[in-house]
Amino acid sequence: MENEAEQQIINELRHIRNEMEIIQNDIRQLKKEQHLIDQPKVSWEFLKMVQSFLLGFFGVAMLMILLGVLMIIMRWLGIY
């Protein structure tokens, strides 16, 4: 009788331990998913690269416009 009761208690404890392991695995999985959710969709490196490209592009465009204006002024003054 005692042996059967002990065996039942041991089985219940094993069942509880298995349930705890399942819960811990679920928690780990949720933490991984949360980490994936927390990551930004677009990396900061990509945004910095786009920003550098745009600054360079518009910088060159402004230099071209200034060069054109300078050439117009020089032609108007008769230097070029």
What would the average pLDDT be, to the nearest integer?
88
Secondary structure class reads mainly alpha
Gross morphology:
rod-shaped
Low-confidence stretches: none
Biggest sheet layout: none
Q: What is the H/E order?
A: HH
> How would you classify the quaternary structure?
single chain
Strand content: under 5%
Fraction of helical residues? over 70%
Measured on Cα atoms, how large is the radius of gyration?
Answer: 36 Å
Count helical runs: 2
Separation, N- and C-terminal Cα atoms? 114 Å
Total strand count, please? 0
Question: What does it look like?
Answer:
The protein has helices at 2-38, 44-77. It is mostly helical. The longest helix is centred in the N-terminal third of the chain and has 37 residues, at 2-38. The relative contact order is 0.04. The mean pLDDT is 88.
Notable characteristics:
0% strand; rod-shaped
At a glance:
The chain has 80 residues and is an all-alpha fold.
Please specify the SSE layout and strand pairing:
Layout: H1 2-38, H2 44-77
